[in-house]
Amino acid sequence: MAEYLAPLRDMAFVLHEIAGLGRVAQLPGCEEASADVVEAILAEAARFAGAVLSPLNRVGDRAGTRCHDGVVTMPPGFGEAYRQFIDGGWNGLGCDPAHGGQGLPGLVSAAVQEMWKSANMAFSLCSMLTLGAAEALERFGSAEQKAMFLPKLVAGSWTGTMNITEPQAGSDLGAIRCRAEPRVDGSYKLFGQKIFISYGEHDLAENIIHLVLARLPGAPEGVKGLSLLLVPKFLVEADGTLGPRNDLRCVSIEHKLGIHASPTAVMSFGDDGGATGHLVGPANAGLEAMFVMMNAARFAVGLEGLGLSERAYQQALAHAKERVQGREIGGAATAVPIVRHPDVRRMLMSMKSRVEAMRALAYFVAAAQDVATRHPDAAERQRNQACVDLMVPVVKGWFTENAVDIASLGMQVHGGMGYIEETGAAQHLRDARITTIYEGTTGIQASDLLWRKIHRDGGAALGAACARMRQTLAELEQSAGADFAAIHAAFAHGVAALEEAAAFVVAHATQDSRGVAVGAVPLLNLMGIVSGGWMMARSALAARRKSDAGNADSFLEGKIVTARFYADHVLAAAPGLAWTVTRGSPGALALGEEQF
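The structure corresponding to this sequence follows.
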């Protein structure tokens, strides 16, 4: 397996030309994010990702984690890598300096996170969950909880988890049964079992802070009766030192298709009288707090889709340049590297163009989140938050569906050797497969997009996004050349298709909810493809501007060519998806259950 090399040139291009790092650096609290500082951070992150994390990716896949009597052992090398990770301050890169973080913009953090996920997705999950727990405590924890737990979580010396799923309650959170009984000292005794808890038990850190959804006595039925409780692996004394082991244990870890180095635990609480927990936020308001973690995780999972896609593309490209087989069509009668064959080039360009579209869209959304959080003007904050809310299900859902397809294409480029584990191509597909499922399946993301982000506001947020897309269309019209004409034509059809689908949803969702719901996932894919096309169009325009300013080189030329490919091969699917959204329900709903 080839080691990961961070695509720093493309990352820098997107940061500056698409996401607007210069504007983000002018936001309050972001002043340290100058171009030279960010360049140094990315260079060092690239070194760590390539030299330390990437070599452990294959090690972790082969060795996996081990569980014996409730003790989970990580694969060789992971403990030392994690120590280097937290000693380098990487865990707290985007966290509040008040708790020991570096306070860098989410845009910079997103670029660094992409590297971790490309280099070693299983390793990156630990930090992802820890930061989600820290954010939930920052928003909803008491002053005492923040002082006690946030410095350790931000530093990474303690890690965090989110405990939601139970055997009988997957996506239906209203079916959660884990219960919490009050004690006289204000704490609670927890009883119940949680499943699919990533990094629920491991040997990387001295303590694990579990955030657990549970029901208090007399709580309302359904999701309105859920409370969030902080349940540490080891109890924490008043002076911050660790006390005795809490009444919780890892019963087992799952044997999974992929991410073998990420321990997915079955956790049992209260087998010996009750696990001690402390309420986070108000009683019966736990879902709001947990969604802080979940929304952060959904964006991060989208970055996993991007990272795995980049890794699969790099490996496929390296193989295609090295593998000599077959004669070139229209060429000499000698064997050539398979990268010279048209269909292999098509597959590689399909991978490359979608990776670049995803990267641009991810960084664009991260920058919008920085503005929504830090901009001094309330209207500007609100406008950007609406954009973020609209795009997060797209980032999560479309990116991860792409990752599965791109990793599969990577195997196809390898031919028969892609199906052999020793090449490593299959690992990317196995690792990617979970990303479409956890933190809400693609269907759940699509329903969120359809009902909460489009139907609820009458399509206002999407309309605002389409208006900005049409501004880019106007710029494309002024750009000469066949490539820009093709990009304009395909993008114009894509925007029109998206507007048609959105108008259908707004007009029919109330009276035909089932029929509209059938088109939710096609709508999400349509939104992703067109949003990606928007980013690719902007990339092509930026590349043209830089070339016209005297900076022309093969990289900038490649940005325009890749955008053209995306227009012809990816954006071309948009009208068909709009057809499915607006006309696809009869074929899906006509059959009775007995006819399946």
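The first strand starts at residue 66 and ends at 68.
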